[in-house]
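Subgroup meeting minutes
Present: P.N., E.W., G.H.
Scribe: E.W.

1. P.N. recapped why we're keeping a running log of single-chain structure predictions: easier to compare across weeks, and new members can see raw inputs and outputs side by side.
2. G.H. added today's entry (368 aa).
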Amino acid sequence: MSSVVERAGTIRVRILYSVPYEGGWDDVVKKYLEIASGFEDLWRELNDRFKDRGDEFICNLGANLGVFYEYIVYLALSERWSSIFNSPKFCFYRTYYSFNEVCAMTALLLNLITRDEIRKSGDFRQQFNPESYLIGSSWESLPKYLRPAVLKVIYGDSLSDCKDACERNGAVNNRCYQDCMQMLDAIDGDKNAINALANKMKIILKKYGMQSRWSGIPKLIKEVLDYTQGINTNPLNGDWRFFGKSLAELLIPTTSRIRFILMLHDLVAARDKFEAGSYNDAFNLLDLAIAHAYVGKVKFRNRAPGKDSLASDLFNTAEITLNELKTVNTAQASIFDISPRNKTIPKFLSILLKLYHYHVQTYLNEVY
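Output recorded in log:
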């Protein structure tokens, strides 16, 4: 089994360093498929080696190794949708019918890189509804007391009680309960809770030396800094609910993987808002995704110049690319359009694939 793990890791490294940012859609996809075809080889090897153990065992093994999900992404970009839709449904589940974080990342990624005619089909919606995967996710790397907040960010309802979440987290005390409720109240637009979260965010931003007067700071980060400094007492033109939701969402991630998952979720939601004609909401969500990329960049930046971590480099490229999306010279509804006329999309695809495979590897490193 160590051979499969090592070879899968090698494929991920090749994707990180060999899939280009420049060129057309076909250039990016061709190079990616050339490398990622190795996941199909590994999936077939698992099937051949363990065929006597049955499909469910093979699926569970493939999911735990990440290989099954990466194989699905490979099939999607190969346009082999019949192979995906004919896969055993329990392959997408882990034990006890909960989804792991890689499964959630995969569903979100597919919702962003799939052509409209496939993405809007009944088969795709039934199998890759992102909310189902996020609500049912086991959120392995997230402290339990933060789960009510992340579910409320995604679903609009906490679906979980703060008292119960703190007890599950082994912290039956007022501080845990207050921190949990503060997140939920801020998401609801409560100004006292928003003030508290804004000050927490200010401390984090100051830790990394960020100042509102810096050029190039994302709009949402500048709104937070200006608000805490009293420069702007009416952030986002008074949209307190979105401001509170944004603060909570930026504070929730305890790992770069959780930040990437929330960034993907915001991008899917932004695309959906664009398609519905709700352009202000869409750009707000795009700004939130950019803020995630920016915080990811600075949080994982090394102190020594020129020695940034790979995570910092990837989030930096994501921030640049998402800012380019905002200025795409096309109709607002087609900013995310998977087509040759959108010149930013190949770079968008490349950075999402790299962040995805990087975080599959971090998941395996942490969980196993």
